[in-house]
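Work package 3, deliverable 3.1, input record:
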Amino acid sequence: MAERMSLVLFSGTVDKLMAASILATGAAAMGMEVDVFLTTWGIEAFRKDAYKTNRRVSSDYADYAPVMLEAMAAKKAPSWMENLLGARDIGAVHIAACSMTMELFNLKLDDLESIVDEVTGVATFIERARESKITLFI
Amino acid sequence: MSPALHVDQVVDAKGQMCPMPVLTLAKAMKTLAPGQVLAISATDQGAKKDIPAWAEKAGNVLLRTVEEGNVLTFYLRKAA
């Protein structure tokens, strides 16, 4: 069985989504399975079409936001969504959305981008993370 | 001078930022038959260590690395 990396994606800002997507891509390229558990603002970021207009950056670095977003555009850096789609292209990337947040925000799986596979509870994530080589909270 | 290498596929990942060079490499390597050789060029500063790390993990052999200015070219043989 392939080794696995488990990510809790709590944040919905582009800077952190970018970091998470690069880690996911790197792990997939290195032959690992990738498990992503979306919760709270991480779920907001995966609402249908939200990624196209999301320009939020961590508030503690808000003054850097325009510079960072312009540099990413100028260097033609792939978006975090493109990174995730690329990761799925080469490896096993599984994305689950936290059922508690879904309930709180009144969301159904159909309200999220199609890259999200299912809605699960935290126990399912923990059960899989228990056997993961790498576990990160972003 | 090193002896010439037979190359089965050439991939250009110049200008790609991390993690795209390893992604491009992983995708391209899938299309090769075991034992075939791929040459990939990259300008990402991380590639110098990333591509050898990727090669080792996947059991492929890094045959040669050529550095010309800011361009790194790696020659890899797919695991048999």
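The mean pLDDT of chain B is 92.
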